[in-house]
Amino acid sequence: MGYDYLKKKVSDYTDKKKNTDEEDLILSGDEARLSELMQHAGMLDPDVAEKLSRIAGDQAAERDRIEGEKEVLKEEKTELSGRISGELGKIGEAKGKLDGISDNKYAVGADSAIRKCEEFIGQLKDLAGQLGSDVSDEGFGALSGGTGGSPDLTGYPDDTVLSLNDNSSEQTAPLSSPTFIIPGQNTGGSLFGGGEFVPLLSTGQEIRTMILDGRSVDVFDHPFEPNDYRICDQGSAYPRDADGNSTGPTGTCGCCASGTVINKAGGHTSEKEVVDYALSHGLCASSGGTAPDGWVGILSGAGISASDNSGTSLEELAKKVEEGHGVIIGVSARTYCREMYGRYFPGAADGHAMVLESVVRDHETGEIIEYVVSDSNGYDTYDACHRVPAKVLEKAYKRKRKAAVVTDDVIW
User: Fold this and answer.
1) Torsion angle, alpha carbons of 21, 22, 27, 32, to 10
2) 153-407: what fold?
3) pTM for the whole structure
């Protein structure tokens, strides 16, 4: 769960609570005045008494509404407090393990990472203070991993974010709280780069102005150049049998997208390494199919903290990309690229995970014209790079319940 998301939810909560408290105060005053009048109802004209009675009924209905809103706010506060505690648990665990490696060779950048953790902890505690919740430095994480608000995509056979090649109804195993893997302290499997990832203060990429199709545009990074970090040729990680069929999972788009983000962050992993890790840790189906919680778990296994941001608009995700965060999205493959996947039809089992690679904006207005994605079904790093009109990708993204995962920190 990203900080920006939590900050917005807390802000929404405090605004609603302020409005409800004001309404409650005004109604309480009106109730007091009416109660005083009703004490003399027997001395009033019958018509006046009847009108007062109707007003009392309206006030009772308004009281019920306000009390109902208070209950909703109470539940919302409890949920948000749990989420903040969960995030504090994750970052607290990470900080503790970073503290533990300060004397070995993996300590490069550890001090800045620890400061980043402390800064994030302070921000989360500020959010808890705005809620009026008390949090302590102990017992964090008791609620972590189980309070996410993203849609359960595995519950929708037509909207499950698996691979285009996986039409089965097999469910993705539930994910427990992500594990921060540090060399020498955890033997949970492959580390995809040694767990040496540390948060960056800002992206090392740039926005370039160029002429594209005769139009002056601003393009984030350099997506059209050969980028070796992209994992391509999805489904080729395992050898084929005599009949030409793969001996391993082929619906591995989510694993490939996660691996691409890991490589963007400085790791050196492959499709097979990621799939083997995901299978052994219950983060994907036997076919290789995944959901957002699996992407989070895979990235966590590489030491990269990430959050399920499902439901976030593509425009907001574009900002995350331009800030240097890694972003994975789930889309309807047939909607996003009919030429590759065929015509879309309702109920199509065409969920496909990809990396949101870059953003193309009009140089004058800043309007998003296109997105650039890395599609693991491409056979090489050039073929994996796709320019997609903004409206097309927005529709494809919406058709798969706006599934998205964003790295918590800047990774490149």
Assistant:
1) 90
2) Cathepsin B; Chain A (3.90.70)
3) 0.58
